[in-house]
Amino acid sequence: MLPSIFYKEWIKIGKISLLLTAVGLLIIAGIHLTVRHDLLMKDAEIYWADIVYQKYVYFSIFKFLPLITGLLIGLAQFIPETVDKRIKLSLHLPINEEEIVLKMAGIGTGILLLIFSLLFAVMYGWSLVYFPAEIVKKTAVSILPWFFSGLAAYFLASFVILEPIWKYRILYMITGVAFLTLFYKSNVSGSYQPAILPLLICTLMLSMSSLFSIYRFRKGEM
């Protein structure tokens, strides 16, 4: 059953996942080519001092990419399920309803984690070419909450889209947007270090939210 579910989900999100991965890699390449250009045109110590003392963030263009990636994959995966209430077909398969929704969300989450792991590794490794480990560690601490926001956006998208009543969808959207701002409160590199674990816990807690929408859908809420 799992291979069949994976194939069905991959048809919906495969192309957009590959496209967003390519866009992410191009943005990372653009960031580091710009860094290389700036280091050649300026003194490297002055450039590093701008990062350390002036809080210059050389990777700010990457900021909303994980959020957009999670949101678009969530929309691509779950909107087709609500067209003509096709989710009912999935819920009538001979397996537990919560299990099938968790598998659908798990497949989307797994693909997102693969994309984010690749982008994080490329960003981290490429940054080590131009910067000392201390600066790269601050870069990693800065971009981790952005990746968490991408996962949160994906979970919120499934939660909102699977909700059967529009007025609750709107309420969830407003609450979700307010929650996502928590990942973007500071522009100072490395400032999110004390908040990494709480943000990760909040993101993991959101992963179960789609089950509540399915519960309401199954109850016949319209």
UniProtKB/TrEMBL annotation:
Keyword Nuclease: no
Keywords per UniProt: Membrane, Transmembrane, Transmembrane helix
Keyword Transmembrane attributed: yes
Domain of life: Bacteria
Annotated TM spans: 16-36, 56-79, 100-123, 143-162, 169-184, 196-215
Annotated protein name in UniProt: ABC-2 family transporter
Organism the protein comes from: Pseudobacter ginsenosidimutans
Taxonomic path: Bacteria, Pseudomonadati, Bacteroidota, Chitinophagia, Chitinophagales
